[in-house]
Specification:
Elements: E1 2-3, E2 10-14, E3 22-26, E4 39-44, E5 47-52, E6 55-60, E7 76-77, E8 86-87, H1 104-117, E9 123-125, E10 129-131, E11 135-137, E12 141-143
Antiparallel strand pairs: 1-2, 2-3, 4-5, 5-6, 7-8, 9-12, 10-11
Length: 165
Amino acid sequence: MSLDTASGAVGWKLNMTNYSPVEMVDDSTDYRDGAWHHAAAVRDGTNGWLWIDGALKAGSAGMFPVDNSTDLYVGYSDSSSSAFRKCWSGLLDEIRVYDYALAPAAIMDLYSAGSVLYRDTPVSVTTNLVVRGGLTVTGGVSFTRGVHYSRPLGDLSCGIYTNAP
């Protein structure tokens, strides 16, 4: 996954030895707006898709087979050319890698869940609140934007809750 710092375009590039690189880019939007964006890259057989903020932005039917003979880099582009060897400039949050291709509905669920939990002001819980369909938060707990909750909070006994810049 990459962000072009000159144009604000977001792209996904898959590259393996002995194959021509496959790249999908959304250059219709400048994503350098200071807001968080949800990006999902999906590969299913020889097809690949790039979703941004819950919308399909690019696709390719020319994906090559992938095996586990090379490393997977997240936030870094490993290239033999130093001109293309780059680190991600910015923050990455909630990175997930699945061993199956996500369906469009699942991508929309992930995008919607992130946007629902994002707030500029603290959220005070005075009665029971179900978070992400399984964790019940009881009264007396407050969530604040920009705070990374990685330890138990009151009745919260597990999980990492981070949805803020």
